[in-house]
């Protein structure tokens, strides 16, 4: 073996465990309560960026899920690396892929991690943030409907 081969072997031995850890990550299970029907989908996102919360569109690293509401009240985010996150979701009852409103008021159900409340608009990231470590995490979220 040449010195180059030895160096590559050592580097691979040091990097592979880190890559495996990143692929493993924690599982974050969101347990949903309060769905008023099993029609449509649940759209959810998990983000670390306050500026991207609650819709996550400004965070290319955010995790998104779309799950049929009939599949039950749980969403599972896999391979979540440790950090501070917030979850937002809504019950897209008509499955059109967007939150419907009437005169600016949500016409479909919504929810946030830590049951963060809405006051004249969506909650701030800090009100919904949760710490994700190496261990799996279960987050309860209550879906609320205004209309």
Structure description:
The chain is α+β, with helices and mostly antiparallel strands and 147 residues long. It has one domain (25-142): Sandwich (Immunoglobulin-like). It is built from 2 helices and 10 strands; from the N terminus they run H-E-E-E-E-E-E-E-E-H-E-E. It has helices spanning 3-24, 125-128, and strands at 26-33, 41-47, 63-68, 74-80, 83-92, 101-102, 105-106, 110-112, 130-132, 137-142. Strands 2, 3, 5, 8 and 9 form a 5-stranded antiparallel β-sheet that branches. A 3-stranded mixed β-sheet has the order 4-1-10. The longest helix has 22 residues, at 3-24. The chain is globular, with a radius of gyration of 19 Å.
As for the CATH topology, it is Immunoglobulin-like
Low-confidence regions: 3-22
Radius of gyration: 19 Å
Average pLDDT score: 88
Strand tally is 10
SSE string: HEEEEEEEEHEE
Highlighted features:
147 residues, Immunoglobulin-like, 3-stranded mixed sheet, 37% strand, disordered N terminus, globular, alpha+beta, 5-stranded antiparallel sheet
